[in-house]
Structures are given as C-alpha cells and as structure tokens.
Amino acid sequence: MDSLKSKSKRKEVRETLKRLPQELNDTYKEAMERIETQCEDDRKLAERVLSWIVYALRPLSLQELRYALATMPGMTEVEDDDLDDLDVLISVCAGLVIVDEESGIVRLVRVSPLLRY
Known about the structure:
Elements: H1 2-5, H2 10-19, H3 24-36, H4 40-55, E1 60-61, H5 62-70, H6 86-91, E2 97-99, E3 105-108
Antiparallel strand pairs: 1-3, 2-3
C-alpha cells in the first residue's frame, strides 16, 4: 500500500499493482529493501523499532515503545524532547509495523505464529 499512496494517476496505480510481489516473503523482502535504502538515521531507527517489537517479552504500547527507544545508557530520566515522533516510528518501518487502534499496541503488520504472546 505504501507504494500506491504516492501515485496520482490511474495508469501509475495499475502499473504499480502489476509489479506488486505475489508471495508474502517477497512482500517482506521488498519492505526490508525500502528500509535499507533510507538514510542511515531512519534505517537505524527502523531496525531498533523492529527489534523492540520482536524481542519484547510482551506487546508494547506506542508510548512504551517511544520510551524504550529514547532510553540510552547513563540516562536517569527521559524528557519529552527525547521521544521520537509517533508517525516517524511507523513510517520508517515501511509498512511492517502498525498500531492497533483499539488497544494502542504496536505490532508487526502480520504476526508470525512463532511470535504469539
């Protein structure tokens, strides 16, 4: 869907739809390639977001994720200026991460059976 939202002409939409990956693994691979082509700061942020989501012992709320990402060795407190922008956290992950509207939980767009909580 990310690759479609920048298209303004029907022809562009149709051509993009034809090029969409057919297999789920190819879709993930394409998303990871989009992450890798971002500037270094965005790529590193995406990697950190994905790592926190995948390795957390329980699902994290968006606020918990923001604080986890802001915490650095030696810090004694986190200030509002240390927190990443909500939209940026989601957008750098190239469609792999969503926020559940109902619970506020940040999760992978499709949860693997191996990552059940």
